[in-house]
Amino acid sequence: MTEAVAAIMPGANQPFSIENVTIDAPQAGEILVDIKAVGVCHSDLVMVSGAFGTQFPAVFGHEGAGIVEAVGAGVTKVAAGDKVLLTFASCGECVRCKDDDPSYCVEFTAMNMLCARPDGSSRVHQHGKDLSANFFGQSSFASKAMASERNVIKLSADADLAALAPLGCGIQTGAGAVMNSLEAKAGQSLVVIGGGSVGLSAVLGGKIAGCSPVILIEPQAYRRDLALSLGADYAIDPMAGDVVAAIRAILPGGVDLLLDTSGHMPTVTASLGMMANKARLGLVGIPGSFDAALPVPMIQWITTGGTVRGIVEGDSNPDTFLPELIAHHAAGRLPFDKFVTTYPFDQINQAIEDAHSGKAIKVVLTF
Ligand SMILES: [Zn+2]
Ligand SMILES: [Zn+2]
């Protein structure tokens, strides 16, 4: 057992409460990490609402970065003292994992959303009671978190943990959706709907892939300006008029690659009218309802060879894709720090309020 400080969600949509907890010693295959920074991602805010039937009190957080404190039996990937980045969990045994495709692990929901060990037990306790934890195989809204070999990557000794933390989910989702899932190639046109951290990462991924032009659709002016400063060629306000006409004015033949990060159904539905032949539409944004359905015009999509695909974690295989993104960041090609705001961990409620209001785009909490 080790002592830690965690941001506990006591019940649905309550403020986080910073409290002392205890965490088990690592079991076989587990890695106890001293968390130094953790990003706040949209999924954390969805879980806070009680989605997926989470039992409260619970510890969320899934963009942790820190230093390995102890490892369980059989762990060879990292050792105490190593700097590590945490990411989503996967089983390593299923057909998708064996095909280096762990973001579609058949156990993804069980391993990332259910907030317990695979055997149902909890790693995190308070006053003798179990807390829901193991969110994304980590629950890193805490000074210490338990991960496993499948969801850590080792960083260099001089890595800046606060700078790299958000790569573990939001940044790899946006950049990977374009670079991996949509298989962006140089010269293809790219439209991204929504200029939050995932959408802006998608813009950066499009620039890395050589897409041209790269266009962002986003209602908030300062996010449009930010996208332009990050290299987007155009930034369109969907409230200013007919979005399809605005895109067609730039791309008369339609859009090659379109990524929705907004989940805003009217805009996604309208986007079906701006696609080029052989276009690919990627869906990342979570709509407001489980029943949301996209009315794909079948004859148009058959005759133009269009593709619609859902995307989890940017099709990332973290062991290879995260080092690739870290190299792009080091070379100045993935300057996501331009839309990160850092807060001390104990200001988590203020940080989330600022994320909701739009004052902050990507929040990182530091210890
Ligand atoms: Zn799997
Ligand atoms: Zn996330």
Throw out a few tags for this protein.
binds zinc ion, alpha/beta, 6-stranded parallel sheet, 7-stranded mixed sheet, 25% strand, single chain, globular, 367 residues
Estimate the strand proportion: 15-25%
Structural class: alpha/beta
- State mean pLDDT (0 to 100 scale): 95
Give the overall shape, derived from the CA principal axes: globular
Low-confidence stretches: none
Q: What is the helix content?
A: 25-40%
Summarize the biggest pleated sheet. Answer: 7 strands, mixed
User: Can you count the beta strands?
Assistant: 17
- Number of helical regions: 12
User: Radius of gyration, Cα only, in angstroms?
Assistant: 20 Å
Distance between the termini: 21 Å
Which cofactor or ligand species appear?
Answer: zinc ion
- H/E element order: EEEHEEHHEEEEHHEHEHEHEHEHEHEHE
What does this protein look like?
By secondary structure, the protein is of the alpha/beta class. Helix 6 links the parallel strand 10 and strand 11. 27% of the residues lie in helices and 25% in strands. The strands form 3 sheets. Strands 3, 4, 5, 8, 9, 16 and 17 form a 7-stranded mixed sheet that branches. It has a 6-stranded parallel sheet with strand order 12-11-10-13-14-15, with helices on both faces. It has helices spanning 42-47, 95-98, 108-112, 161-164, 170-181, 197-209, 221-229, 243-250, 265-271, 298-304, 318-330, 348-357; strands at residues 2-8, 17-23, 30-40, 64-71, 83-86, 124-126, 129-130, 144-148, 152-154, 190-193, 214-217, 234-236, 255-260, 275-283, 307-310, 340-344, 362-366. The chain is globular, with a radius of gyration of 20 Å. It starts with a strand and ends with a strand. The protein is built from 12 helices and 17 strands. The model has no long low-confidence stretch (mean pLDDT 95). The structure holds zinc ion (2 copies). One zinc ion binds at residues 41, 43, 62, 169-170.
